[in-house]
Write a structure and sequence with these properties.
It contains eleven helices and nine strands. It is an alpha/beta fold. It folds into two domains: 219 residues, Rossmann fold (3-Layer(aba) Sandwich); 68 residues, no CATH class. The strands form two sheets. The chain has a seven-stranded parallel beta sheet, with helices on both faces. Helix 5 links the parallel strand 7 and strand 8. The two termini are 37 Å apart. The mean pLDDT is 93.
């Protein structure tokens, strides 16, 4: 039975991975966190006080580990007050990740699964969805730090023989999702009128359950070795279509007011919300054919199932 170490297990995605690993009972599971903020089952060994930093000693956490699933990161922030955001992201997401990965290779870890971001590809698609073979075009300091980590990890794999798997998801939704999706859930739950009834963009999303299923497939699949894999639900939606599906899932009648996109963009610009508007109004599509064919994988849950599970969480909150 292989031993799997999950970093960032307190977070939205890390905690979902932990739940999945516990349910299938095929692996011995460890978690590494900066600060233990929740109770863990007795059969899970918890290593806390571990920062993603250059001087962190991961020796104890990595002893006898076969696979690392690395979810911990400095997340992108809506209001980043850092004087040098790129330097701060690099310190954690690039340098901290490489410190962990180098020590993992030295400890004999066989596989290192890195949760990256679709932001590495870019911020928007026009005529064609993003693919894993596209030239990267990171659109933010966060995405840049993830790309630099990817490049260094693949070089480390070549030098050491430890296999690396890189997974780039788009927006991940599900129960207790943070950030913009959580804010959208609050608006839908309140049934407030939204001026988003005439948006004809196309966006890819992925439910946390589909993402976790893919990551778990990467633990031992031989075709995943040293690959960059894009992920999504396999169903692209416009913002208007997404909101309609959310209304059904939340059993909430929504008033979606049709308003021209140029008017919305102008209003967002005047309010200093252009970045948030782009995420609602622009297109961002993912081609997951490589992932599906290479790993013989299909997203096991539909968008409707993912949104219903999300709505059930919010209705109990």
């Amino acid at each position: 039975m292989d031993t799997v170490l999950v970093t960032g297990a307190n977070g939205f995605i890390g905690s979902a991975i932990l739940t999945k690993l516990q349910l299938n009972q095929q692996y011995r599971v460890r978690v590494a966190v900066r600060q233990s903020s929740r109770p863990y089952p007795d059969d899970i060994h918890v290593y806390d006080g571990l920062e993603l930093a250059l001087n962190t000693d991961w020796t104890s956490a990595l002893s006898s580990v076969d696979v690392v699933i690395h979810c911990a990161a400095r997340a992108h922030l809506l209001r980043d007050t850092s004087a040098d955001p790129l330097a701060d992201f690099r310190r954690v997401n690039t340098e901290g990740t490489l410190t962990l990965a180098f020590q993992a290779a030295q400890a004999g870890v066989k596989r290192f699964i890195f949760l990256s971001s679709l932001g590495v590809n870019g911020a928007e698609t026009t005529s064609q969805p993003f693919t894993a073979s596209d030239i990267p075009s990171p659109h933010s300091p966060y995405a840049q730090s993830k790309l630099e980590a990817e490049v260094a990890l693949l070089k480390l794999a070549q030098r050491t023989g430890m296999s690396v798997v890189i997974v780039r998801p788009p927006l991940v939704y599900g129960p207790n999702a943070p950030g913009n999706f959580g804010a959208l859930c609050r608006l839908v739950q309140k049934g407030l009128p939204l001026p988003l009834g005439w948006i004809n963009n196309r966006r890819s999303f992925i439910s946390v359950d589909n993402l976790v299923d893919l990551i778990c497939r990467c633990i031992d699949h031989p075709n995943a070795v040293n690959q960059v894999l894009l992920a999504s639900d396999g169903e692209d939606l416009s913002t208007t279509e997404l909101l309609k599906k959310m209304g059904v899932a939340f059993e909430q009648r929504l008033l979606l007011v049709p308003m021209p996109v140029p008017v919305l963009k102008l209003g967002a610009q005047l309010l200093g919300k252009s970045k948030q508007a782009q995420q609602l109004l622009g297109s961002l599509q993912v081609d997951i054919e490589k992932t599906k064919l290479m790993l013989d994988w299909r997203p096991p849950f539909s968008v409707e199932q993912g949104l219903r599970k999300t709505a059930e969480y919010w209705q109990k909150a």
